[in-house]
UniProtKB/TrEMBL annotation:
Gene Ontology CC annotations of this record: exocyst
Native source organism of the sequence: Gigaspora margarita
Record-stated family: Belongs to the SEC8 family.
Domain (Exocyst complex component Sec8 N-terminal): residue spans on this chain: 49-185
UniProt-listed InterPro entries: Sec8/EXOC4, Sec8_exocyst_N, Sec8_M
Keywords: Exocytosis, Protein transport, Transport
Protein's UniProt name: Exocyst complex component Sec8
Basic and acidic residues composition bias: residue spans: 856-867
BP term (GO), one: vesicle docking involved in exocytosis
Residue segments, region Disordered: 848-871
């Protein structure tokens, strides 16, 4: 086949492959033959036609021209020269066009056939219509001719038809009136009150028309509808109060029960301002009736299916009277339901009376609401109340504040407060909603015209005053029991007797009597009869609605005294006992509630939002602060004045590892409670700061008195010496500036480094010298020492208690002085004391590592929770320096206790070693196998001393008390050698046994036995055995080990010289040489010793 333009295109479209030599010859004469491949594949007819038209436009475009001449084309096709046209290409294009058209015909011939039939039908219908139009035209002409003729009988027929129509209309109205009572009862039963009110009002209006007055059969209906208005008015008011004061179960989603660890006042309803834009009302209906559909979609949060619709006030521009959707239960949306009730009252023209009734019933309804809430809380916490009822509760027991029973009481009180305030919040929202709806109704001209004037709205303050009174009563009842006692059952008689006895004017702030104290049984019959009468009247008027009395509806008799003091309300049943410390639970929910109240002020109320919190500030200043002050100091007096106030707290292991006295633990509980109150009442931090400082000052006096009682002399030694000093020798020495300065520099709390060990040794030597200077060679009497081990233990317990107390107080101080917005370094600087001396003391005590050293991650989490529950100590700038100075005095007293223990033990050592060397016998004819009895007593005394303080002092303080005793013993043993006049070799052996016994006993007591050594004292007394000449030779060869006075004392012992006598008197039994010769020899040795010691200076 010859090549032609577009051959490849047609080949690719029809499935013919021209790229290789193996293909079948295309049959151009029969292009639709079934032997070709073109019918073997589905073909798109429009694509085929599009391809053919493209080929014609490309190769045969001149044939589309209007001036096309087919004769010239035919001649060109017959011309085989190069000037002619390709005849085969023309035939191929023609075949392709035929084939494309054939495809289109095959695809759409059914449509062509049906369109032909349809066209025939349309033409037939058009013909029929033309025929009917012609017939109608002829009939209209006939009617026109008939109407143009005049007939007198038709007028009478028209008048008669009008009469029949009027009769039918009246009969229809009577039929409607006949079914109206049943329809009204059905609407009331389903609580569609707005439709029922419209039906009642419209029926009454229709029955009062002239044409209905003459119908006697309607008189009963007329009386029935007139009689239903007052019961319906009462019913609407009751239903409104049921939803306004949350009596209906459909209102449960408007308030929230207390949840554990609740911190704020939640509300399932949306805020006022945000709700204005989210609640949309679609009015659907005809001219006069519109069904109200509420769009419950909310942009914030997912509401549960039982939750009410989002809260909002109706916009001012929505001044159309709404109707109900009779297919839904109106109570499911409480606010929508209350609006329906208000609209119903407006329809009945009873809205002013309803508002007055609402105002009058506010105090009664609030009182019942609080009582109901109290009962609910008691039911939820029944197990806790049973547990509390079986245990005796002491109001003055400080530790009861931290007990689990007290925590259960506080949890029940939190439950009451948060639940009650959530309900009060919902009630205020309901009142605000009613005010807005009434204000919107009040702007309708037709409504004002119907009642003759605008409705006077009750002010928001009329709602707030009873609520404020209930809140004040609640705070008073749970903080102070004074008013509670006066309002108890037995109180009225007592108050009347007091009034008659004292003949004073009655205090108007206290109740003389209350109806709750009356005998309720005597009025039970009257109440029951009253309730029966009310039920019968309601059932008679609305039998369907009041066939069953609602469970939540309780009929009670109330006496409303409009001239009584509204600030005083009868108390409610208490869920917990009143206590001033309850304010930490009361204040936060109350503040959250007052903050909510400020947001609900209507625009028409010109009162400042601060007016709603004034009563709370007055209550805190005039009632709470005096009450908590009395309570605090009553607890303080009980905690510090009892016999066991400074005894070990049996529960100390719960907060520290070492014993703490009960008074310190009790006072710490009080201070922590005050700090919790201070967190919730930060605006009164100055009063709380003064209260805490006063407590600490009084406790310091108590601790100082306890310290003086411990260190006081025995009664027989109190006045000896005529100095007037009643303190023991250790307490007297500790107060000396020289000794207190040395002890104050002692690094007993620092790490055990080489530098600190050297410093401690140096300070020990200085301390020994000062103590020996204070002793002045005199004998320490037994009466000047603390010999009772209980006093030692008490002194150690007092030290650790003060140290623990200061550390805990400092921790609270750090919390209060570490604001969250300050960097850590600046916060630390803020807690430092300004005075240099106080800062120095603070550095030693700033970190207290012995409170509970064995703690783990769980303890850290527990401590974190306690820190969150325990507030910091917030102080004013004026109180900060006073508090820090007071804290420093506690630290000084604690250190004085510790220093007294150390000095007391050292005085015991001086006392017994003095006795051992002054009264002991060291000139023995036999070898001694036992140490001196006074040394044994000293060892026993040291062991008991260690046992008495080991359980009360931390490790570092314990080490500090016993550190340096070996150096003191060596010094006293050597320096007291002047008291030994008669000494021989057996006496030296006894002295060695004394030294060995002291050394071994001290090693058994101290923490580091390897550092204990009395070799210096032992070597000193061994000089006696080598004689004067060898001693001087040893000094000459090895150098001086002891001082000149100590060598001189040894020479006096060797030569039996008594330095206190001018004339030497020697006994005959002990004398070997003449006195003059012994004195001469002593002087020679002393002169030589003097020369040797000068060489070593």
């Amino acid at each position: 086949m010859a090549n032609y333009p577009g051959a490849s295109y047609f080949g690719s479209d029809y499935g013919v492959n021209y790229s290789d030599g193996n293909y079948d010859e295309f049959d151009w004469k029969n292009p639709y033959s079934q032997n070709t491949q073109i019918n073997s594949v589905p073909v798109d007819s429009f694509r085929e036609m599009e391809a053919v038209m493209r080929q014609i436009n490309e190769n045969w475009d001149f044939m589309n021209s209007e001036n096309f001449n087919p004769v010239s084309l035919a001649l060109q096709l017959l011309d085989d020269s190069s000037l002619g046209k390709d005849y085969k290409a023309f035939q191929q294009t023609k075949a392709s066009l035929d084939r494309a058209l054939q495809f289109i015909v095959n695809d759409y011939y059914h449509g062509f056939n049906s369109s032909i039939g349809t066209f025939g039908g349309v033409m037939k219908n058009i013909g029929d219509s033309q025929e009917r139009v012609r017939e109608m035209k002829s009939q209209l002409k006939a009617c026109k001719e008939a109407l143009s003729s005049k007939r007198s009988d038709l007028l009478q027929l028209w008048f008669r038809s009008q009469q029949y129509k009027e009769m039918i209309r009246i009969l229809d109205l009577i039929e409607d009136f006949k079914g109206a009572p049943e329809k009204l009862e059905g609407l009331l039963k389903e609580k569609h009150y707005l439709t029922a009110s419209n039906l009642l009002l419209e029926s009454t209006r229709m029955l009062e028309k002239k044409e209905m007055i003459g119908i006697g059969a309607l008189s009963d209906l007329r009386r029935y509808f007139k009689g239903q208005q007052s019961p319906l008015h009462e019913l609407l008011i009751e239903e409104l109060h049921n939803h306004l004061y949350l009596k209906s179960s459909y209102c449960d989603s408007r308030w929230v029960k207390y949840t554990k660890d609740q911190k704020e006042l939640p509300s399932p309803l949306m805020e006022w301002n945000s709700g204005r834009d989210n609640r949309k009302m679609n009015f659907i209906g005809a001219k006069n009736k519109k069904n109200l559909y509420v769009n419950t979609g909310s942009s914030g949060g997912i509401m549960s299916p039982r939750s009410p619709k989002p809260f909002i006030t109706i916009k001012d521009e929505d001044d159309e009277i709404i109707t109900e959707n009779l297919d839904i239960n109106p109570e499911t949306d409480s606010f929508y339901y209350m609006e329906i009730l208000i609209e119903s009252l407006a329809v009945l023209k009873r809205l002013p009376q309803a508002l007055e009734t609402i105002t009058q019933r506010i105090p009664i309804e609030l009182y019942q609401l609080v009582d109901k809430t109290v009962a609910e809380v008691e039911e939820r916490n029944a197990n806790s109340f049973v547990m509390l009822a079986t245990k005796k509760y002491d109001m003055t027991d400080v530790f009861s504040l931290e007990s689990s029973e007290n925590d259960a009481q506080l949890e029940a009180l939190r439950d009451l407060l948060w639940t009650l305030y959530s309900k009060l919040d919902a009630i205020l929202q309901g009142h605000r909603f009613i005010l807005d709806v009434v204000e919107r109704i009040n702007k309708r001209p037709e409504f004002n015209k119907s009642i003759g004037s605008q409705i006077k709205l009750y002010p928001f303050s009329e709602i707030w005053k009873p609520i404020q009174s209930e809140v004040r009563t609640l705070l008073r009842d749970y903080i102070t029991d004074d008013e509670r006692n006066s309002a108890s059952i037995d109180a009225p008689d007592a108050i009347l007797q007091d009034l008659m006895k004292e003949k004073k004017l009655r205090d108007s702030s206290k109740q003389l009597f209350k109806f709750g104290d009356a005998d309720l049984n005597s009025y039970a019959a009257f109440d029951q009869q009253y309730e029966i009468d009310i039920k019968m009247a309601l059932q008679k008027s609305l039998p369907e609605t009041f066939s069953k009395a609602p469970d939540e509806r309780q009929l009670s008799v109330f006496v409303i005294d409009r001239f009584a003091n509204t600030n005083i309300t009868a108390g409610h049943r208490l869920v917990v006992k009143p206590d001033a410390f309850n304010v930490s639970v009361l204040f936060k929910p109350t503040s959250a509630f007052l903050d909510k109240v400020k947001t609900m002020l209507p625009p028409s109320d010109h009162r400042s939002s601060e007016d709603f919190t004034t009563f709370l500030d007055d209550f805190v200043s005039n009632v709470f602060l005096p009450q908590i002050g009395d309570k605090i100091f009553e607890l303080f007096h009980k905690a510090t004045s009892e016999a066991d106030a400074f005894q070990e707290d049996p529960n100390y292991k719960s907060y520290t590892t070492l014993p703490v006295v009960k008074s310190a633990a009790s006072l710490m509980i009080i201070v922590e409670r005050l700090c919790v109150m201070l967190q919730t009442m930060a605006s009164h931090k100055e009063e709380f700061s003064k209260m805490i400082i006063s407590l600490l000052t009084r406790y310091y006096v108590k601790c100082f008195e306890q310290y003086q009682a411990i260190v006081a002399k025995n009664s027989g030694e109190a006045d000896s010496g005529g100095t007037g000093n009643h303190q023991g020798i250790s307490a007297t020495w500790v107060q000396q500036d020289q000794l207190s300065e040395i002890l104050g520099q002692y690094p007993y709390l620092d790490d055990d480094t080489v530098k600190n060990r050297r410093k401690r040794k140096m300070l020990c030597d200085k301390e020994t010298k000062v103590e020996m200077h204070l002793k002045k060679k005199r004998y320490i009497r037994t009466g000047e020492l603390i010999m009772e081990n209980k006093k030692m233990a008490a002194l150690g317990a007092l030290y650790h208690s003060l140290k623990w107390f200061v550390a805990k107080i400092w921790e609270l101080r750090g919390k209060g002085s570490n604001p969250a917005n300050l960097p850590a370094t600046k916060a630390d600087d803020a807690t430092k004391m300004d005075d240099g001396k106080l800062a120095k003391i603070n550095r030693r005590w700033s970190q207290f590592g012995e409170i509970n050293p064995n703690h783990g991650p769980k303890d850290d989490e527990k401590k974190k929770d306690e820190d969150q529950n325990t507030g910091g100590l917030l102080l004013t700038d004026e109180m900060t320096n006073r508090f820090d100075a007071l804290l420093a005095t506690f630290q000084q007293l604690a250190e004085q206790c510790l220093f007294t223990l150390r000095v007391e033990l050292r005085c015991h050592i001086m006392h017994f070693i003095d006795l051992a060397m002054r009264e002991g016998n060291y000139q023995l004819d036999y070898e001694a196998y036992e140490p001196d009895p006074h040394v044994l007593i000293l060892n026993t005394d040291m062991v008991k001393f260690e046992e008495s303080i080991s359980s009360n002092l931390p490790l570092k303080e314990h080490r500090f008390v016993f550190e340096g005793l070996d150096a003191l013993m060596e010094h006293v043993l050597v320096s007291n050698a002047t008291f030994l006049r008669n000494l021989n070799s057996n006496g030296i052996t006894k002295m060695s046994r004394n030294i060995l016994a002291l050394q071994q006993n001290l090693k058994n007591i101290v923490d580091i036995p390897g550092e204990i050594s009395l070799d210096k004292a032992r070597r000193y007394y061994e000089l006696y055995n080598i004689g004067p000449a060898n001693m001087l030779a040893q000094i000459r060869e090895q150098g001086a080990v002891f001082t000149f006075d100590e060598y001189k004392a040894m020479l006096e012992i060797m030569h039996k010289i008594d330095p206190s006598s001018e004339v030497q008197q020697l006994t005959a039994t002990n004398r070997r040489d003449s006195p003059s010769a012994n004195r001469k020899l002593y002087n020679e040795h002393l002169l030589e010793l003097n020369e040797l010691m000068l060489d070593f200076l």
